[in-house]
């Protein structure tokens, strides 16, 4: 984290979950769930470490409590929304292959945006 920075670690940490979505969407082997979960676990390890470091790195520590609370609330909201989104996609006839690839694309876009994000101006 100290060497490459939290922002780069966060975007690199999305690579395994991108691969896991492709595995989930494009394979139907007996080992698919195992590989999917292993890749998700690797990604969550990266994101956990980078997520704790990115807020003070980008915004400082003055309002770290408020920043973390908004980040946690956003995470809880998105976690609650995702089963509804998947259910709607399945109800309208999108195949699980399409859902896996769609989510892989969304993760890829997120990784690119995380890599390109400009640091906010410090000062006050």
TrEMBL record:
Keywords: Membrane, Transmembrane, Transmembrane helix
Keyword Transmembrane helix: yes
Keyword Mitochondrion: no
Residues spanning the membrane: 12-30, 36-55, 67-90, 96-118
Protein name, as recorded: Major Facilitator Superfamily protein
Biological source species: Marinobacter zhanjiangensis
